Amino acid sequence: MSHEFESFRARREAGNAKVLNTDNLATKRFFALDKQVYGPGALSTETKELLGLVASMVLRCNDCIDYHLERCVDEGFSKAELDEAMGVAMMVGGSIVIPHARHAAASIEYLLSQNDEN
Amino acid sequence: MSHEFESFRARREAGNAKVLNTDNLATKRFFALDKQVYGPGALSTETKELLGLVASMVLRCNDCIDYHLERCVDEGFSKAELDEAMGVAMMVGGSIVIPHARHAAASIEYLLSQNDEN
Amino acid sequence: MSHEFESFRARREAGNAKVLNTDNLATKRFFALDKQVYGPGALSTETKELLGLVASMVLRCNDCIDYHLERCVDEGFSKAELDEAMGVAMMVGGSIVIPHARHAAASIEYLLSQNDEN
Amino acid sequence: MSHEFESFRARREAGNAKVLNTDNLATKRFFALDKQVYGPGALSTETKELLGLVASMVLRCNDCIDYHLERCVDEGFSKAELDEAMGVAMMVGGSIVIPHARHAAASIEYLLSQNDEN
Amino acid sequence: MSHEFESFRARREAGNAKVLNTDNLATKRFFALDKQVYGPGALSTETKELLGLVASMVLRCNDCIDYHLERCVDEGFSKAELDEAMGVAMMVGGSIVIPHARHAAASIEYLLSQNDEN
Amino acid sequence: MSHEFESFRARREAGNAKVLNTDNLATKRFFALDKQVYGPGALSTETKELLGLVASMVLRCNDCIDYHLERCVDEGFSKAELDEAMGVAMMVGGSIVIPHARHAAASIEYLLSQNDEN
């Protein structure tokens, strides 16, 4: 699993560089706004990352799930909390979400094991 | 707006009664599980209702948005907090979510004005 | 409810006439193919209408649900059978499908009551 | 039909005012960016509005369809051109898009009849 | 192809074990309900598996397609019947479903060839 | 990247052959119609390919994106034009589209580098 998550990180970084290698100002603003939205405000960054995770689960995007899972683990969410968030996502999104729950469960295992090592 | 939200409540109650007027045990269990998922646990009910709201926004279902908005207002979320949650949903789900943000904004106005009266 | 289903039928017929009032041959062929797909073949028309119903439920389109429900009732499906098909759709598609299950339950009630009168 | 499209315009304007009646800066930037994206650039505004229309069709959002249809008619697209764009959207998105093609056909009829009067 | 389907089976089994390695009771009930829904009742298990297949096709989830295809082949559906079900799914879901029809066609070929060997 | 795009082409060709290896006439007509829709008419083939690309982006299908990107590059679209089309797709579809923009950016780089060699 370690390799899969690491390769996701590398693909993501290289891919974003390619997308942002453009003269299209709107795309650059879109990426900037995507960062700003998760910043602290009336809701905590922690809560907003969890919202981003569940939105990514019900929309069924593994790369988005992995990105927000990493941020959620950084924010200190426990396995039990992430499991419950996944439970809400599965309930709203249905059994079609299950393959993404499988993906997320492997990512959570990897991310938490990394944390333990540090 | 008041009439629209009240009519949603009435339609929802009558509709659920029709769906549950069935011998199909799986459907009854599905509805029971849908309640259980939002109960207190590792995450608070408050947090899980906000997850349900954002999931409903990105999946673009007005009835689901209204249901979770009412629950979120009951849990004490402020307009500023709900506005930020909608901001996350719009960022993840795109401009296609905007008509549902319009719907939600009207529902929030109504629900908070009701609270003020009480 | 009777009026709502009748008005759907009228809106659908008038709307299809407008869509087909075009020189665009591809659109006309698309509509013709949409009829052909549900004709008898290796699977019965009855089975294919039920597939169309469940596909419409998980994709959450009330007009499509109503169209296939009417066809399914014409093909002789009972309330218990339609309830089970809705149960599969809710399981696959999640609680976001529930508002459409409410819509479908009202349509089923209307369509079966019409059948009883004949 | 005239009333339906006019009421959409009124609902849209009032709803956007409610959404933007917020201290949430990200939401305001999101709306500003949504305007900027359709401005002239490497592609013409005309082409980008047609892209917005087809994206709205396959994502099945009537309010978004009506907004982009009005812009497309303002940009001078003919009925034959809009019919072909709808044909592409139906092909990509499937028969589940048909109810939205019905909606769009009525809006096109209204918008073009308005143009003829002017 | 054989390897791809076998690796799906292995990934699915290992992934489900990880998802169910949780104290979250709702998730366990969700998985149990997902089994129950396809059991015999007013509709046959055979029919319900075909409904699950078409729902998975229009929602475009290869892992879900593979799971239901295997169950459908176990229930005795022929290539001609599965081809027709895929035809309904493509019609409802549009050309965006075609890559999943390609995936399904390869899985069907593999699953039926396995059956021939037994 | 070159290998990934080439392997997509090979998988696509082999997969289509498997899907069309069927007695199901509707599927064959569906594929034929899918070609016809992009032919010249009131809109140019060029414009319709760009519509197909943006529809594929917001519906988040990498194989469909790659197919239409190749066609768009064949039709002569520049990187700046494709970047703007991706900008519209991200705005409409939200940040959930970003992983597909990453995929598309790599494909564009490959396809344009191929063009330069010829």
Description:
Six copies of one chain form a homohexamer. With 118 residues, the first copy, chain A, is mainly α. The first copy, chain A, is 79% helix and 0% strand. Chain A has six helices and no strands. The interface between C and E is medium-sized, with 31 and 31 residues.
- Output the radius of gyration of chain A: 15 Å
Count of the separate structural domains of chain A: 1
Mean pLDDT of chain A: 95
Structural category of chain A is mainly alpha
Oligomer: homohexamer
Helix run count of chain A: 6
CATH topology of chain A: AhpD-like
**Count of strand segments of chain A:** 0
What's the order of the H and E elements of chain A?
HHHHHH
Beta-strand percentage of chain A? under 5%
* Name of the CATH class of chain A: Mainly Alpha
Q: Globular, elongated, flat, extended or rod-shaped: what is the shape of chain A? A: globular
What's the architecture of chain A in CATH terms? Answer: Up-down Bundle
Major β-sheet profile of chain A: none
User: For this structure, what is the CATH homologous superfamily of chain A?
Assistant: AhpD-like
Largest interface: C-E, 31 and 31 residues
End-to-end separation of chain A = 18 Å
Give the % helix of chain A: over 70%
